[in-house]
Specification:
Layout (H helix, E strand, L loop, with lengths): L8 H17 L5 H8 L4 H13 L3 E3 L7 E3 L10 E11 L10 E8 H4 L8 E7 L13 E5 L9 E6 L2 E10 L2 E5 L14 E11 L4
Parallel strand pairs: 3-5
Antiparallel strand pairs: 1-2, 3-4, 5-6, 6-10, 7-8, 7-10, 8-9
């Protein structure tokens, strides 16, 4: 978030002129137009005002580009850092079933919502089918956001292969042995006969309105 510094009266006037010009003609004024409007002695004076406004966080300017002043609204919320998350083929939230993982689409979410510090190619989304995780608020048709790099711990909700089939369940350990548990009493615990491989840990949910 910008730490906005108060403007002097003249700085505010320059900012207002830039904003009004942009609103009227669809682009910010040039340095020379700012100079002429305020009758500054040189373009250097106009440039110095623009430089101060940029330093205080009220605008930004691309160097060596004509009319490259871009206003920053001090009252607007900060822009969020977005991540494009690939969507893979459906993951059942019922009994496990065989599933080939193929990216079919993508969704965009901000990192703050996911609670992660930076973008990662190891984050993906899986479409949920079934009601076995409804107790955890994960419903049929939701997209579960999965982090392949995150370590599964006792109690984590995970995407996993169990005996060659994929599912989304809660990962638990009992007497040193891992197993999977649904969040719906109608479904039994899943105890691996041969293998249980965690594909990633559930870190968020995407649900379309309606």
């Amino acid at each position: 978030m910008f730490s906005m510094t108060m403007l002097t009266r003249k700085q505010q006037q320059v900012w207002n002129f830039i904003a009004e010009t942009q609103q009227k003609v669809g682009m910010a004024p040039s340095i020379r137009e700012i100079k002429n409007h305020f009758a500054f002695g040189s373009t250097r004076s106009a440039f110095d005002y623009v430089k101060v406004l940029a330093k205080k966080g009220y605008l930004k300017r691309e160097p060596r580009t004509a009319r490259a002043i871009q206003l920053i609204d001090p009252h607007a919320p900060p822009r969020k850092n977005k991540i494009s998350i690939p969507i893979y083929s459906s993951l059942p939230a019922t009994l496990p079933e065989e599933r080939t993982q193929i990216a079919v689409d993508s969704i965009t979410m901000d990192l703050e919502t996911l609670g992660i510090p930076k973008s990662s190619t190891l984050i993906f989304a899986l479409r949920i089918k079934g009601d076995s995780m409804e107790g955890a608020g994960i419903l049929n048709g939701d997209w579960a956001i999965i982090d392949h790099a995150k370590e599964a711990r006792h109690g984590s909700i995970v995407a996993a292969y169990i005996d060659g089939k994929s599912t989304l369940k809660r990962f638990l350990i009992r007497q040193g042995k891992p197993y999977l548990k649904a969040e719906n009493a109608r479904y039994p615990d899943l105890i691996p006969c041969e293998e249980l491989m965690v594909q990633g840990v559930f870190i968020g949910l995407y649900r379309r309105a309606g």
